[in-house]
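hey so u asked for the seq, here:
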Amino acid sequence: MKARVLAWVGAILVVGCAYASPGDGMDLRIAPPKIAFGDWRRLSETETTVEYAIEFPSPVATPYPVNNRVPIRALLPQGTEGPMPVVVVLHYWGASDQRVDVALAQELNSRGVAAVLVTLPYHLSRTPPGATSGQYAIEPDPPKMRRTMEQSVLDVRRTVDWIASRPEFDTNKIGLAGTSLGAIVGATAYAVEPRFAAASFVLGGADLAHILWHSSRVVQQREVLRGAGYLEGSLRDELSSIEPLTYLSERRPAPVFLVGARYDSVIPPADTEKLRAALPGSQILWVDTGHYGGVFVQRKILRLVAEFEGAALEGRPFSAPERIYAPTLRIGVEMNSARGLQVAAGIDLWRTSPKAEGFATFLVTPKGAEVFLGHTISNGFAVGFVAKPSGISLGAFWSTIL
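ran it, structure tokens below
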């Protein structure tokens, strides 16, 4: 009897250390408690795809009941007998729909691979009343950031539990694909979930503190953190329990494919490179865009991700292309001695290096077309010459690469 009591006390202490210490963060290597799953329901059917849906409780409880359920969409290739390979798909921050995820699912289905779409915390149908999708996903409060990432990762791990409960899926062939925020969540989930046999991360990275301290997407959140006394180093300490780099060194290597944007101001390329360096043997494709310019080659990227996942899960070789053509588009404010200050948008014609310090851009402005040839000084501000039908003049251009 005494031994049984001691065993129960020990179990409670283990669970307490794992799930009840928000100050220090959870140990994400500890799997969420097992649950019994209900049956899925059939939603729709096309010539190529059959879609099902299920919802189950999140392992993490929050003050918002709507956020405490995890909606799942499963898209299976029509006419395929199980068990089949399957890929868990994670969306980007602020997603208002899952069109991109469905497009990837269709590419996977065409290759005989199923797709399971997960709604991340505080997004889509998990958005609390009065908020917008993703509004609460990244708040300038490190304990809240930890809690949201912990919920995200444990939701993904419970999704894998659900996949393992279905006879339609091959539990030895489970892949993972994430974009932007989904890639960051995915990198941590991949690091701690050993059942992932392959992973692809699009526009993601590691070193969360550096991303938050340098990303153009979280300027307001960064100012709040600064006002609260945080520096990049102290923020790194606070987020260590949810940092992908904390766990990736312990991960048994598996095939990984990354897509990064050379001129990304949302996820700095240096942080994409940190993620690549932490994944031995991974392949990477760099596109010549910023964080949002990849939309112009979205179909190509989705096809490459689907090709990679299909090959990796079946044990076939995959070689990432050295490059794909993607237009480098700029938008900003240009000034020259002939036309004055004006908004401008254009496409790069030439660059001196991958970092695009020197460049030539064909611009469209309210006062006509022109070509800007200049050199970047800092933070997107460049000086140089402007060529117009009326002649050449000195100019300056502050721009952001899409």
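DSSP finds ten helices and 15 strands in the chain. The first helix runs from residue 2 to 19.
lmk if thats what u needed
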